[in-house]
Write a structure and sequence with these properties.
Largest sheet: 5 strands, parallel
Distance between the termini: 33 Å
CATH class: Alpha Beta
Number of domains: 1
Strand order of the largest sheet: 2-3-1-4-5
CATH topology: Rossmann fold
CATH superfamily: P-loop containing nucleotide triphosphate hydrolases
Oligomer: single chain
């Protein structure tokens, strides 16, 4: 893989994968690594816009989100984060790590029957990242990981809104299987780089860093001064430790943010 210049100002890196793929843990470790190098990094997550979160939460609570509304409410969330978080950081030469990007919509909405061309059009305002890492894992493995520490699957997480079956486990496997197929096609088209997420956390992170070093030129990034760098890393660790670190490294705590 040849090293390349970022497309436009700043560097945009996205991580994608099924629930339980370990992508959030790897994104966290990636941010820490880049901060240690002195890069100005911003980390942003799917379904986290303050403007949209309350509406999404209410819709899920009352089970009112059908595939069409799911598609547009997540697009609104992404558009708000694009305008307020992602694009401004890229414009000043920063590095943005996105825990899920528009490919999540392609997989989740596509698995629920939304046409691929419609999804592409809805998200056409956002360019493809300079690099997208796809953490590939089998649905059975992802299920075993996310079920550790909690009694059951959530309604939308398991795809129960689609009415495929009355069994949440079977519904989850069907939804995740469809998503995995879509992710695989996107990766095969060259828009994402596959990473084996069945390995150990440290080995996966080693592979992540090698891919980034081989494919992204970080030499043009203006580094943060050493004193400011230490203060920023300390603040980041204190504010995120309880959100990301679990015994397995895959069950991620998010201060109540429902990622589904």
């Amino acid at each position: 893989m040849k090293s390349k210049e970022p497309s436009g100002a700043g560097i945009l890196i996205a991580v994608e994968g099924l629930d339980g793929s370990g992508k959030s843990t790897q994104a966290h470790l990636l941010v820490q690594w880049l901060r240690a190098l002195g890069a100005p990094v911003h980390h942003t997550e799917w379904n986290s816009s303050p403007m949209v979160k309350s509406a999404t939460k209410e819709g899920k609570k009352n089970q009112r989100l059908v595939p069409e509304t799911f598609h547009y409410i997540h697009a609104a969330d992404f558009a708000d984060r694009w305008e307020r978080q992602i694009q401004p950081l890229l414009a000043v030469g920063g590095v943005v790590i996105c825990d899920r990007y528009k490919f999540t919509a392609m997989a989740r909405d596509g698995a629920r029957g939304i046409n691929k061309e419609r999804i592409e059009m809805t998200y056409s305002f956002a360019r493809d990242p300079d690099l997208t890492l796809y953490f590939e894992v089998d649905p059975e493995v992802s299920l075993s990981r996310i079920m550790k520490g909690r009694p059951n699957l959530k309604y939308y997480e398991s795809g129960m809104d689609m009415g495929w079956t009355d069994d949440p486990i079977e519904s989850y496997k069907k939804l995740q299987g469809r998503m995995r197929e879509i992710y695989g096609k996107i990766a095969d088209s060259g828009r994402m780089v596959k990473i084996d997420s069945n390995l150990g956390i440290a080995e996966i992170q080693k592979n992540v860093r090698k891919i980034i070093s081989d494919s992204i030129d970080l030499s043009n990034v203006t580094l943060i001064e050493a004193d400011d760098r230490r203060a920023e890393i300390h603040h980041y660790d204190d504010s995120t430790r309880m959100r990301y670190i679990s015994p397995e490294g895959y069950t991620v705590l998010r201060h109540g943010v429902d990622e589904d």
